[in-house]
Design brief:
Bound molecules: glutamic acid
Structural class: alpha/beta
CATH architecture of the largest domain: 3-Layer(aba) Sandwich
Shape: globular
CATH topology of the largest domain: Carbamate kinase
Helix content: 25-40%
Strand content: 15-25%
Strand order of the largest sheet: 5-6-4-1-7-11-12-10
Radius of gyration: 22 Å
Low-confidence stretches: 1-5
């Protein structure tokens, strides 16, 4: 494994993303369930201690680190006498409520070896959709940092419903990286990096660097294992999300946490976008839930997705769902393909009366574009 993914000196020198990760002042480290728990034994405190060692070393070297730790559900199975990961939401939530307590306690005990205090922060997807919650979470994380404590973040699993879940902690970690303005995101799990196929199913080659989406052509990403929910597909989408926020990402094996966090010379490195999306566009694309959808004709699809112009009522052929001015909605092509998202200016009822009408036909109060170009983002 290490032979495949450790890099030659020359390649190491070339990679700006790796340098940025190794020297980042503020780092978010996500640890997957499979790195901390097993079906039989529950929480593995020996492995957890090794991960805490690597985080502590990075903090002592001068970086601020936020830990996003999965494993609540996995840690709750054995104490409840469950022998496999439950499918139904209620049992998952019961397991998470037992496991989260054990998980937070284990992190707390582990960091005590270094005299370091741990704060638990549980977040819901809703906290990213609402600006006020967002700001509060930001402030709490910032204060923990300034007090020298390490924040251990997880999804607030016991209250999340299927519809509003982040789904996986890779996405949560990327949103947290954006929230705290991190300079690097490190995703640690049981995979040592990105392959162009599933290495368990035959020949697949390791991809050490992803500089742009072209490097992902032909990559087949699978879904999660028995304990976590992530899988490669969710890691890739989290890496894209972080890259949009201007944050480079390292995908590496939890077993190699020490080297991943000190030198960044293992795993797959994803370069950040050269130009960050504005905070508003980032929020529209990734953080806010869409409240409805507008179906567009071909001309309007071209105007918003290619020409990057504002959306006018004339190009809208359908309105879905009930929403208010200021909500985020999906923009769909006539074949219902998602093309963009944006902040709509009008309520759904108001908008229904405007469909297909050109601006000159509309009353004075409806002269504003339906979605302004600054509030539109292609997906
Ligand atoms: N929040 C879930 C847990 O702690 C993990 C979600 C995931 O697997 O990414 O068990």
């Amino acid at each position: 494994m290490t032979q495949v993914n450790s890099l030659g000196a020359q390649e190491r020198e070339l990679s700006e993303a790796r340098q940025a990760i190794a020297s980042a002042r503020s780092v978010v480290v996500k640890i997957g369930s499979s790195a901390l728990t097993s079906l039989k034994g529950g929480l593995d405190t020996v492995r957890l201690d090794r991960l805490a060692d690597a985080v502590e070393a990075r903090m002592r070297a001068g970086s601020d680190v936020v830990v996003v730790s999965s494993g609540a559900i996995g840690a709750g199975l054995a104490p409840l006498g469950l022998t496999r990961r439950p499918r139904d939401l209620a049992t998952k939530q019961a397991a998470a409520s037992v496991g989260q307590l054990a998980l937070a306690h284990a992190w707390g005990t582990s960091f005590t070896r270094y005299g370091r205090t741990v704060g638990q922060v549980l977040l819901s997807a809703d906290d990213f959709a609402r600006r006020e919650h967002h700001r509060n979470a930001q402030r709490t994380l910032d204060r923990l940092r300034s007090l020298g404590a390490v924040a251990v973040v997880n999804e607030n699993d016991t209250v999340a419903t299927e519809e509003i879940r982040f789904g996986d902690n890779d996405r949560l970690a990327a949103l947290v990286a954006h929230l705290v303005g991190a300079d690097a995101l490190v995703l640690l799990s049981d995979v040592e990096g990105l392959y162009d196929g599933d290495p368990r199913k035959g020949a697949a080659s390791f991809i050490p660097e992803v500089r742009s989406s072209a490097d992902l052509d032909g990559v087949i990403a699978g879904s999660g294992g028995v304990l976590g929910t992530g899988g490669m597909a969710s890691k890739l989408s989290a890496a894209r999300l972080a890259a949009d926020a201007g944050v480079p990402v390292l995908l590496a094996a939890a077993e190699q946490a020490g080297i991943a966090l000190s030198e960044g010379t293992v795993g797959t490195a994803f370069a950040a976008r050269a130009t960050r999306l504005s905070a508003r566009k980032f929020w529209v694309r990734h953080a806010a839930d869409s409240r409805g959808a507008l179906v567009l004709d071909d001309g309007a699809v071209h105007a918003v997705a290619v020409a990057r112009r504002s959306l006018l009522a004339a190009g809208i052929i359908g309105v879905r769902g009930r929403f208010h001015g200021g909500d985020v909605v999906d923009l769909l092509a006539a074949d219902h393909r998602l093309v963009a998202r944006g902040v709509v200016e009008y309520d759904s009822t108001e908008l229904s009366t405007m469909l297909g009408r050109s601006t000159t036909e509309l009353p004075d109060t409806m002269q504003r574009p339906v979605i302004h170009a600054d509030d539109l983002v292609k997906v």
